[in-house]
UniProtKB/TrEMBL annotation:
PANTHER family: ALPHA-/EPSILON-SARCOGLYCAN FAMILY MEMBER, ALPHA-SARCOGLYCAN. Residues 1-22 form the signal peptide. Residues 377-396 are annotated as: Disordered. The chain crosses the membrane at residues 298-321. It is found in: Cell membrane, Sarcolemma; Cytoplasm, Cytoskeleton. Component of the sarcoglycan complex, a subcomplex of the dystrophin-glycoprotein complex which forms a link between the F-actin cytoskeleton and the extracellular matrix. SMART domains: CADG. Belongs to the sarcoglycan alpha/epsilon family. Residues 34-140 form the Dystroglycan-type cadherin-like domain. This is Alpha-sarcoglycan. The lineage of its organism: Eukaryota, Metazoa, Chordata, Craniata, Vertebrata. It comes from the Eukaryota. Pfam families: Sarcoglycan_2, Sarcoglycan_2_C.
């Protein structure tokens, strides 16, 4: 009766295990998404929640709102993102952003693996983002200015509409219309402090803007040494123009940085051919390396340390054996009265030791055998290993 019951238990457990495995969510993969970016310009890619929400197997609603989704991104075959790329997502119910400013060293193709998690059903959806970084057509912008916006977080300035609004405000101060956003960085990445959890407190964002035209007098005066001195005193810097950033953006003018970049000459790189030999051309392999005589190098490597060790041993032996003073030299350099005094003390000590060894005096009582007048028993007062304090002197 036990064998059939045990068999039915195994069958039920297998069915339950199979059903639970069938209920586990699958892992879906979206088609690759290819984008391009120029060097010296801000790159922003928004991870749209709606795109991944439609790819999930089940739509889980929480009070009418979409399920929370979190993202993880890393470079293909690497545990982290490239050094020029950053990821930010403030809340699982908000979109995520991949942003950064590639330089000339990052020219090429970067494959980013993006994985979306449904926090309610634990479903996952993967997508590969292929970013192609190409050199900027006009090169790097020579005039660059960096502004610190104190009333914004980094994800609030990443959308294209927010960047366009900031450029329009910067154009009024720069007096140029060819402005471009070069980079956007959170103040926390520059060593800023995390704001208190109070409504209205923001982390702050550094926005670097570039142009091919020179800086306006307003920007030059705001970054002058006189303005820096006023900022060190806690005062506002000198400004000869109207602050067109207000009221949307609170720019901290004491943190304004102006930079003029000059194009650096680059050496021409190697010219790569087609890889196919021309007609009639034969491949000429490199000649063999001429034989080299390694015996002198081996002897130098082996004999020089041995010679140095031998010289050190000879020097040490000379100092220890040939430079000893000896008794005779010591006595010659010592005064006669000191020698007599030393000899007298030494002789008297030897004489006392000899007299103590030959004297005949009665032995101390502590070394004599102990006698019991009642029983006549004698016990050695200095017992050996065979007897000791456990042997009683008096009868019990």
């Amino acid at each position: 009766m036990e064998a059939p019951a045990l068999r039915w238990a195994w069958v039920l457990a297998a069915m339950a295990l199979g059903g639970s495995r069938a209920a586990l969510p699958d892992h879906r993969v979206l088609p690759d998404h290819r984008v391009s970016s120029d060097t010296g310009a801000i790159f922003v890619h928004e991870l749209e929640r709606e795109l991944f929400q439609e790819a999930f197997l089940t739509g889980h609603e929480d009070d009418g709102a979409a399920a929370p989704i979190t993202f993880q991104a890393h470079l293909r075959d690497h545990p982290d993102l490239p050094r020029w790329l950053r990821y930010i997502q403030r809340d699982p119910r908000q979109p995520g952003f991949l942003y950064g400013s590639p330089t000339a060293a990052e020219v090429g193709t970067h494959a980013i693996e993006v994985l979306a998690y449904n926090r309610h059903t634990y479903e996952t959806v993967a997508q590969r983002l292929v970013i192609t970084v190409v050199p900027a057509p006009g090169g790097e912008l020579p005039y660059q200015g960096e502004f610190l916006v104190g009333n914004r977080n980094v994800e609030e300035l990443l959308p294209a509409a927010a960047q366009e609004t900031f450029l329009q405000a910067a154009a009024g101060v720069w007096e140029r219309d060819d402005l471009h956003v070069i980079n956007i960085t959170s103040a926390l990445d520059r060593g800023g402090r995390v704001p208190l959890p109070i409504e209205g407190r923001k982390e702050g964002v550094y926005v670097k803007v570039g142009s091919r035209g020179a800086f306006s007098p307003c920007l030059v005066s705001a970054a002058s040494p006189q303005s820096r001195f006023r900022c060190s005193l806690g005062q506002q810097p000198l400004a000869s123009c109207y602050d067109t950033f207000a009221p949307h953006f609170t720019v901290r003018w004491c943190n304004l940085t102006l930079l003029q970049v000059w194009p650096s000459p680059t050496a021409p790189g190697p010219r790569w051919g087609s890889g196919v030999l021309e007609e009639g051309g034969d491949f000429q392999p490199p000649t063999e390396a001429p034989p080299q005589d390694l015996l002198p190098s081996y002897l130098v490597t082996l004999l020089v340390p041995l010679a140095v060790a031998a010289l050190l041993c000879l020097l040490l032996g000379h100092l220890m054996c040939c430079r000893r003073e000896g008794v005779q030299k010591r006595d010659l350099e010592t005064s006669d009265i000191q020698l007599v005094h030393h000899t007298t003390i030494h002789g008297d000590t030897e004489e006392l030791r000899h007299m103590a060894g030959t004297r005949d005096v009665p032995r101390p009582l502590s070394t004599l055998p102990m006698f019991n007048v009642r029983t006549g028993q004698r016990i050695n007062p200095m017992p050996g290993p065979s007897d000791g304090a456990r042997v009683p002197l008096l009868p019990q």
